[in-house]
Amino acid sequence: MKYKGALLTVKDVDISKVFYVSVLEQKIAFDMGEHVTFEDGFSLQQNYSKLIGLSENDILQKAHSFQLYFEVSDLDVWNLRLKNISSIEFLHDIKEYAWGQRSIRLYDPDMHIIEIAESMESVIKRFLNTGLSVEETSERTMFPVDFVKQCL
């Protein structure tokens, strides 16, 4: 068995396509009308409830049980860009976690959670640029010393 990606149920595939292409800069691999697959391996499906034999009321919004995860090299730039889009609802502003990675979470047009986080390579470079040693950076990020050295 081979994992092939996640599928998000959406009310309006055209609105969701605009969000993922224009806002999150995703590239479409296949567009079949009510079904769209992106190059990074996730898909959107309109009328999903009909495909699986449920009513539209059975599809929950804001379930908070799933998220799509994206990485960026400069979270501050993305945060400013996203804050300028008034239609975006944020789950939380930038948070920094114990391992040093920072992220923001927001909702897509169908209220699926989107996490946008710094890549760990960016986190490691940020720590090294502040004067932490390779070993200190390894300890703080919980990444092996060899990985930290590769980020130099």
In brief:
This protein is of the alpha/beta class and 152 residues long.
Describe what you observe in this structure.
This protein is of the alpha/beta class. The protein has a domain at about 1-55: 2,3-Dihydroxybiphenyl 1,2-Dioxygenase, domain 1 (Roll). It has six helices and eight strands, in the order βαβββαβαβββααα. The protein has helices spanning about 15-25, 50, 75-85, 120-130, 135-140, 145-150, and strands at about 5-10, 30, 35-40, 45, 65-70, 90-95, 100-105, 115-120. The strands form two sheets. Strands 1-4-3-2 form a four-stranded mixed sheet, covered by helices on one side. Strands 5-8-7-6 form a four-stranded mixed sheet. It is elongated. The mean pLDDT is about 95.
Determine and state the CATH class of one domain: Alpha Beta
Order of helices and strands: EHEEEHEHEEEHHH
From the alpha carbons, calculate the radius of gyration and give it in angstroms: 18 Å
| Largest beta-sheet details | 4 strands, mixed
> How much helix, percentage-wise, in residues?
25-40%
What amount of the residues lies in strands? Answer: 25-35%
Mean pLDDT: 95
Pick out its properties:
single chain, 152 residues, alpha/beta, 2,3-Dihydroxybiphenyl 1,2-Dioxygenase, domain 1, 4-stranded mixed β-sheet, 6 helices, 8 strands, 27% strand
